[in-house]
Sequence to fold (290 residues):
Amino acid sequence: MNTANILVGIAFSGAAYAMVLYMTSVGLSVTMGLLGVANLAHGAFAMAGGYLLVTLMDRLEVPFGLAVVLACVAVGAISLVLERWLYARVYKATELDQVVLSMGLIFVGTAVAHFVFGAQPVRVAIPDAIGGQLALAGGFSFPVYRLVLIATGLAVFAALWLTIEKTLVGARIRSAVDNRAMAEALGLNSKRLFAAVFALGSVLAALGGAMGADVMAIEPEYALKHLVYFLIVVAVGGLGSVKGPFLAALLLGVGDAACKILAPGFGGIFIYIALFLILLVKPNGLFGRA
Fold:
């Protein structure tokens, strides 16, 4: 394999992994940055999205695309219930209370996954239409499914950025976060708005878990196993930001792929060194609020 093949492989593999990280992590950035909730159980929503996708496809024979949509909708509905019954009670509580609640949900989710699906990872059957190889110019080829992941991640980024930065809904969200009392005095229903934002974050987690199930295997320990990566993307990108997690995921995804291919013995260390150096220079992340 020549140098060009290696570089192209790193770029595409790293970008696909980065988009899975982004789709899953940006919801955590939104809920932590905008709602101020340290929801460490975010990965459990991603895991639920992956398990629901596999269940819908294997047991009910639902097509892949429709199964992804249904899994996201189901996780969003579940998150709304949890938000009203549990999370709304800790919005004004200490970070320790929020961490204890979310860690408890992780253990509950892990136990339920063990009981229902067993200890082994479940596999997603990628449809033939997106399961092959795409021949590129110069003799390169790349899995079509990885290209679908990249396109989906870019679409999610564009939709979120436009919604948060350029629409009335985004302006209402930002105003409620900056000054909730003033926003409510002006007639804004912040309670309903916060519930919607929480559900949006959970849907994004489910989307990342479902679409990325072929990259990050769905297993009972998924939420705990990948929690550190989701937190690193949020920390490097900055809380409450849409652009920050996108750039952070790209940096970490491509960098991690490069190190694992070029220096396999040290590949896993790169992500932690990058976190240390970036936070040393930008303590609030690349686009975080001071």
